[in-house]
């Protein structure tokens, strides 16, 4: 393998993390748009909206579970000074899981016809989820992109770990 190829491999993990975060941000924005369309009376029926939410929630949960079980232990081993950062990120994951559960519960009880009370509750939950997720991603990117770019984990090259997977037409999953 030439040096350029090796260098690209070494910088790819941080770049891949950023790509996953961009994708998850886009998924959340698309879900928010679908929720707004539903409450404005011209969106998906509740069943389809719940399926849309489930897709986003599953992707975010898979990403964070992959970090907690795979990436963070590897980073902690190689960079022990980041253990507090990783602990903070895990705490965010727990908070995001709780918010995802709240959103899913609200969407499970959506009426067939939108109503203002439900709209307010759902929009508040999406706003809270978005705020925590954005803050979490920015913090994680500032703390871990350069670290990930400095790492060479052969098994991550051979089998893309869950925290770096994207479900799309490019075949990332």
UniProtKB/TrEMBL annotation:
InterPro entries: Dimeric_xanthone_biosynth, Hemerythrin-like
Domain Hemerythrin-like: 17-145
PANTHER family to which the protein is assigned, alphabetical: EXPRESSED PROTEIN, HEMERYTHRIN-LIKE DOMAIN-CONTAINING PROTEIN
Protein name: Hemerythrin-like domain-containing protein
Organism lineage string: Bacteria, Bacillati, Actinomycetota, Actinomycetes, Streptosporangiales
